[in-house]
Design goal:
- This protein has 567 residues and is an alpha/beta fold.
- Helices cover 27% and strands 16% of the residues.
- It contains 18 helices and 22 strands.
- The longest helix is centred in the first third of the chain and has 16 residues.
Length: 567
């Protein structure tokens, strides 16, 4: 096992944890989470096994879109602290072996950003071409809106000049014009600034949208939008050789592959664009499989994953900070998932997703929940967790839209979940109140319980980090077995190989397996369980039968007689 290589491409075996500073820990008790509070809680993340911390926007904001409407790309929201607090967080995290990345939101700004305020005052403003304008009324664009409950089109008339500005998202978030080289220079300045202060990369928001205008201007020196993404990656690499761009690209696999930058698609060269991409397609098929108790949709999707550059990686997840989008499913498939996990209209959002967390969708069944997270960590790729997943937090449907899953972190059973000692009315959002609230779900109690979900997530993170074949496997090998509800897959890299079994149904099954490359005439090859005591021996033809309880799971390392790895 060439372990020395895993430190060079650290992102291939990272454990990523996403959080919003505003809702994580309030240290000065003003009701808003802050960088000081996050720093004080960094050992919780280290103990969990996190190696990469992803910060949602911490920049100054008009706060009409939970921080994604930015008024200053080079600052820190004063409610959260200042630049010195951020640097102190980065340094403290690094001491614990945790890199820090942050959201790079460059598709748009807030309409209160100084650039847009200047741009809307006059057509002669030096910032006018920082945005996208139309002198004539655009045609109907109701089919292009991202938030259909809030907007009826992507163009809004600006009274000052009588022209229309474009906004793919909300009207208070005008789109930046990346066809303008000056805008691209500003973005490079942002990337360079935060990298110099210690960030190890960025999660890039809405990548296809912010590339859409590039290479379309008459004076643009780029011929293809992907040229810009390559330039951005090259610039970041020059500033910090091991920094990453983790991109949000919710497209079908054949289009998504292009954003890695391996044009011929053979996976034999290094990528030149995004370092990691979220596997939205696999995530959506996972939920379809869970709804059906049938692993075949997920298995077929994993087998269809395109070959990616050898230094690139898929970012896998079961939940994130947005609605759980199901837009790549058919209407009938989406209806199946809605019926299983969000039958009430209030649980759904935009007609395409769910605003719930996993434990509530699975009715709090600990077997089911643990099976899903075991599956997440066993999939080839880099697992990404959203804050609170490690303890099984639920959502608060009383909160508006996507804010239902962005509730304050639950540290203790005390008021406000130990997040803050301020009055509840001063918090950024309501705390979960039902059986998933702080009295029942919190970090303090689970830290002392060896059978808690938190303890189980620690085990998964540790075993994942000890099994680099999960991050470095070139492809997913789906193993033949007779049960539709069972996903049996194998990950192999160099001399390391692991078999993972997951039963997506509540009924127990016996799973026959045959590993043809493990046949032997001498000492039998063993399958050693990594999550619980036990092992199974393969016969001379590489065959065995394994028992799985309802919603059962097993990680089995393939161990030969000459094995030198610690089990």
């Amino acid at each position: 096992m060439r372990l020395r290589e895993t430190s060079d491409l650290w992102w291939k075996t990272a454990v990523v944890y996403c959080l919003d500073v505003e809702t994580f820990m309030d240290w000065d008790d003003d009701g808003v989470g802050d960088l000081q509070g996050l720093t004080q809680r960094i050992d919780h993340l280290a103990d969990l096994g996190v190696t990469c911390l992803w910060l949602m926007p911490f920049y100054p904001t008009a706060d009409r879109d939970d921080g994604y409407d930015i008024t200053d790309f080079l600052g820190v929201d004063p409610r959260l602290g200042d630049v010195g607090d951020l640097v102190r967080l980065i340094r403290t995290a690094r001491d614990r072996g945790i890199r820090v990345i942050a959201d790079l939101v460059v598709n748009h700004t807030s309409d209160r950003h100084p650039w847009f305020r200047s741009a809307r005052r006059s057509k002669d403003s030096p910032y006018r071409d920082y945005y996208v304008w139309s002198a004539t009324k655009p045609p109907d664009t109701s089919d292009q809106v991202v938030f259909p409950d809030q907007e009826t089109g992507i163009w809004t008339r600006d009274d000052a000049t009588g022209e229309y500005y474009r906004h793919r998202f909300y009207r208070h978030q005008p789109d930046l014009n990346t066809a303008n080289p000056k805008v691209r220079d500003e973005i490079a300045k942002v990337v360079g600034y935060w990298t110099e202060l210690g960030l190890s990369g960025f999660r890039v928001d809405a990548v296809p949208f912010f590339l859409a205008d590039t290479a379309k201007g008459p004076d643009d020196d780029l011929e293809d939008p992907h040229d810009y993404l390559r330039d951005l990656r090259s610039f970041l690499t020059r500033r910090s050789g091991d920094a990453v761009l983790m991109g949000e690209v919710n497209l079908p696999y054949d289009q998504q592959r292009q954003f890695f930058g391996d044009d011929d698609g053979d996976g034999t060269s290094d990528g030149t664009e995004l370092t990691l991409q979220f596997d939205f397609v696999g995530m959506q098929q996972l939920y379809l499989s869970l709804a059906r108790h049938d692993a075949r949709p997920l298995a077929a999707t994993l087998a269809a994953r395109p070959t990616i550059p050898r230094d690139a990686q898929w970012a896998t997840f079961v939940r994130n900070h947005d609605e759980l989008t199901l837009d790549k499913l058919s209407d009938d498939e989406r209806a199946e998932v809605f019926a299983a996990f969000g039958p009430d209209e209030d649980m759904q959002l935009y007609g395409r997703g769910l605003r719930r967390r996993l434990p509530t969708m699975l009715d709090g069944d600990p077997r089911h929940i643990r099976m899903v997270y075991s599956l997440l960590f066993s999939l080839p790729g880099t697992p990404v967790l959203f804050y609170g997943e490690e303890i099984g937090m639920g959502e608060n449907l009383a909160a508006e839209g996507r804010m239902a899953v962005r509730t304050p972190m639950q540290w203790t059973a005390e008021r406000n979940g130990g997040f803050s000692r301020a009055a509840p009315s001063r918090l950024p959002g309501p705390v979960v109140e039902d059986g998933y609230g702080p009295r029942h779900v919190n970090v303090a109690e689970q830290r002392l319980d060896p059978d808690s979900l938190l303890a189980f997530m620690r085990l998964l993170a540790r075993r994942y980090r000890e099994s680099p074949e999960l991050g470095w496997a070139r492809e997913v090998e789906i193993l033949d077995q007779p049960h539709a509800a069972v996903l049996a897959h194998r990950s192999t890299w160099d001399d390391g190989s692991m078999v993972a079994l997951h039963n997506l149904a509540p009924e127990p099954v016996s799973v026959p397996l045959e590993l043809s490359d493990c046949s032997s005439e001498g000492a039998p090859v063993r399958l050693v369980d990594l999550l619980q005591p036990g092992e199974a021996a393969l016969d001379a033809r590489g065959r065995t039968t394994l028992e799985l309880p309802g919603y059962g799971y097993r990680w089995l390392r393939v161990v030969h007689a000459t094995e030198r790895r610690l089990i």
